[in-house]
Design goal:
The chain is α+β, with helices and mostly antiparallel strands and 786 residues long.
């Protein structure tokens, strides 16, 4: 007979033990005669807590979906990465071997299939032993009670709730009993066991029986043998002490305890038990890499995660999205093509070494979908800076990769070109482009019909040819003075807006509303530029970069996501004209003609001021690829490429055509075999000719009259410089262009400042007087002969 004649103690003492027995008795429907009345006077804080727990805790237990690992796949279904907070894959009971079920029940709760919410016999036995010892020596928890405890811990959303779910108090145990009653009343034993086997922790980061089977034995839960099952069932009691990889002797002893229990319960014969007990642990450990570092495409993987963390499709906050990504059991099929990725990695690795004081990067985007097919950079992912490793993703925008980007140089000329054609500028428009020009800032239209206010001259020089060029030749030779003057025609507002619409993020457009915009002074990433140029390949349709094809939830159902976000920015004929012009860059005479493919390809080179970076943006109708090599130290600060050793070669000079284009070419020449051979469309003659309209000569007109007439005809007018002329002072002498122009084009008015001054006449000097001649004397007469 149990004796309770002991002093009242704190929450570890008799009163709390009494409270538990009361709870056990009440919940199990067992009435222990004569036990209630003697305890009336023994109430204490501990007993009150237990009683409160009995009264206030709800019966119903909410089972949330257990955290499961997320798989990231390439476009062809190849595994790219696994992401998790808890490495778990939920499996149903019929996917768990019978020996595993038997081993777990045998060692954790042998009467599981016969008792109710609690095992009264086991609980009372444990209480007696613990009371006698003065501490917790035995546990009386059933599998159901353990499931309740694990579930409450998983459901806890705060540190306080998590601590309460693990408190070693009898109040918590009584509350768990109430939950256990509901679980037993509402779930079958099979469901309870299934949930427990998936919730249990098996050490070494393996949550649930499937992850444990994969980790320790490289098999599935369905194929676990009796020996393997006995080992795993034994680990659960203390995953640290019985960890098979770190404490093999303890794990072996514990496994054999499980085997002995199975023998006692008649689940094994003596011969089977002896053979298993004499065998080794038989481990075949497989570690699951968590995250992107060991992925086949670490920086694409990282970009994908950062993209999803900012996607409202996955939740209202980043906390919710991260929980879903790391614990939602999702299957994320990405857009990456591992064939393209391999080619990109090899090309970047050949041209720029990991420890070089430069960054090499390639980004590939599919026109018409925005699918990111590959991103590669020369510095690998990791923490070993001496080996060139980094966690900075230099190929994507700063919000996804923490790199602030690099200036793209003359690759921005394509945006001015597209805006010019969009506005109707004829492709044969000729502009005289000297080696150096100085243009007043006030000659450049901005938004709302205004002009830059500064009258200071903008000075720009050519690093290539000089002379008279049209849109074809000015682009093929990348003539700076041509494009700065073309900006006077297009204005600055249109090209900047179009650049933003095509996917290049410009945080402060007003800051870059200057003539230097066409020379690429905005910091950008290769992925942004590939996205933008993909708009040309898609004939005017812009699609935002997208790394995700499809997401499925833990049940295999498609998870609703936004998908491709595409918008037509300009008509097809405009894009066709841009493509036709940019084809010239990769044709004979163009700077990148050495990179010709076996199919149509167009592009634009770019070299940054002071040679801090070189670019090549090349594309086919199927794939746009940005190639960038930029001087950068380990922290990403820019450096001049000249004088650096890049890819094993000392660079005395660097250019988009000679340095960045070959890296593009090597990758694309490997990839083109997988690209359908599509042709660019010939430009429409109407676009080639442009939207021109004739206008008369305004010689002798006042500037006000000429401006009014031009505005009526659909043009803008801008007074530019004064010139000497016989025309009255203040009247128009000539215009640029003259005779006809694209509708909406700004016509520059050159105004007379009067005739040139008459040069002062230099007086004619007086002639030097001729000296007077001296008279010649007469000769002496000859004497006469006699």
């Amino acid at each position: 007979m149990l004796s309770f004649a002991r002093p009242v103690r704190d929450e570890g003492g008799v009163v709390h033990q009494i409270a538990v027995i009361i709870g056990v008795s009440l919940l199990s429907g067992v009435l222990i005669a004569g036990m209630a009345l003697p305890w009336v006077g023994l109430a204490s804080k501990g007993a009150e807590e237990s009683a409160a727990a009995m009264e206030s805790f709800p019966l119903r237990l909410k089972f949330r979906a257990l955290p499961e690992r997320t798989r990231v796949l390439a476009a062809d279904g190849t595994k790219l990465a696994v992401l998790f907070d808890e490495n778990r894959k939920y499996v149903h009971l019929d996917e768990i071997s019978a020996p595993m079920q038997e081993a777990m029940v045998a060692i954790e709760d042998a009467r599981f299939y016969t008792h109710g919410p609690i095992d009264v016999q086991g609980t009372l036995r444990a209480l007696v032993v613990n009371q006698t010892s003065g501490g917790v020596v035995q546990g009386g928890s059933t599998i159901t009670q353990q499931l309740v405890k694990l579930t409450l811990q998983e459901n806890a959303d705060t540190d306080e709730a998590r601590a309460a779910a693990s408190d070693d108090t009898y109040a918590r145990k009584v509350a768990e009993l109430r939950y256990a009653t509901w679980v037993e009343d509402n779930l079958s034993k099979r469901v309870i066991l299934e949930k427990y086997l998936n919730a249990a922790y098996f050490g070494d980061g393996a949550y649930g029986i499937e992850a444990a089977a994969r980790h320790y034995f490289s098999t599935s839960a369905a194929k676990l043998t009796t020996a393997q099952s006995a080992l795993l069932a034994g680990v659960v009691k203390n995953p640290t002490s019985y960890n098979p990889t770190n404490n093999q002797r303890s794990a072996l002893k514990r496994r054999n305890t499980v085997v002995a229990t199975l023998l006692d319960l008649g689940k094994l014969t003596e011969g089977q038990a002896k053979r298993i007990s004499a065998s080794s642990l038989g481990l075949k450990v497989t570690d699951v890499s968590n995250g992107c570092v060991e992925s086949a495409a670490p920086f694409f993987c990282d970009y994908l995660i950062q993209y999803l963390l900012k996607s409202p499709d996955l939740g209202d906050s980043e906390v919710e999205r991260r929980a879903l990504i790391n614990g939602g059991g999702l299957t994320i099929k990405s857009t990456i093509d591992l064939r393209f990725q391999k080619a990109a990695d090899e090309s970047v690795g050949d041209h720029v070494f990991a420890t070089d004081r430069a960054i090499g990067g390639l980004a590939m985007v599919e026109p018409g979908t925005g699918y990111v097919k590959a991103i590669a950079q020369s510095r690998p992912m990791g923490r070993k800076q001496k080996k060139g490793e980094t966690f900075l993703n230099y190929v994507v925008h700063q919000k996804y990769g923490d790199s602030r980007g690099f200036q793209p140089g003359s690759t921005f000329k394509a945006f001015v070109l597209a805006e010019a054609i969009k506005q109707g500028v004829p492709l044969d428009t000729e502009i005289y482009s000297p080696s150096v020009i100085q243009v007043p800032h006030s000659d450049f239209p901005v938004c709302n019909g205004e002009y830059l206010e500064s009258t200071e001259a903008y000075r720009v020089h050519n690093s290539t040819d000089s002379g008279t060029f049209d849109l074809y030749t000015g682009t093929q030779k990348s003539v700076n003075t041509f494009y700065v003057q073309l900006e006077k025609i297009t204005g600055l507002c249109g090209p900047i807006r179009l650049t933003q619409e095509m996917g290049v993020e410009i945080e402060d457009p007003e800051r870059f509303m200057t003539p230097s915009f066409t020379l690429g002074t905005v910091d950008v990433s290769p992925l942004e530029m590939a996205e933008a140029y993909a708009t040309f390949g898609a004939r005017g349709v812009h699609c935002a970069s997208l790394p995700v094809l499809e997401i499925r939830d833990r049940n295999g159902d498609v998870f609703p996501t936004t998908g491709s976000r595409c918008e037509r920015l300009f008509p097809r004929p405009v894009a066709d004209a841009v493509n036709d012009i940019l084809l010239g860059v990769i044709e004979p005479g163009g700077f990148a003609y050495l990179q010709q493919l076996k199919q149509d390809a167009a592009g634009k080179t770019g070299t940054v001021q002071d040679t801090k970076g070189v670019w090549f943006l090349g594309y086919t109708p199927n794939l746009a690829t940005a190639s960038m090599i930029a001087g950068a130290n380990a922290q990403g600060s820019p450096l001049d490429l000249r004088g650096l050793t890049i890819g094993g070669e000392l660079l005395e000079d660097a250019s988009g055509s000679g340095t960045a284009a070959p890296m593009w070419g090597d990758a694309m020449k490997a990839i083109q075999q997988w690209l359908p051979n599509k042709k660019f469309v010939e430009p429409d003659p109407e676009v080639v000719e442009g939207k021109t309209k004739p206008f008369p000569s305004f010689f002798g007109y006042s500037t006000a009259a000429a401006s009014a007439k031009l505005k009526k005809l659909g043009f803008e007018a801008k007074v530019t410089s004064t010139v000497y002329s016989a025309a009255p002072v203040g009247t128009v002498v000539y215009t640029s262009p003259s005779g006809e122009a694209a509708v909406g084009q700004t016509i520059l008015l050159y105004v007379s400042q009067g005739p040139p001054p008459t040069p002062t006449a230099t007086p004619t000097p007086s002639p030097t007087p001729t000296p007077t001649a001296t008279p010649t004397p007469s000769p002496t007469p000859t004497p006469t002969a006699t």
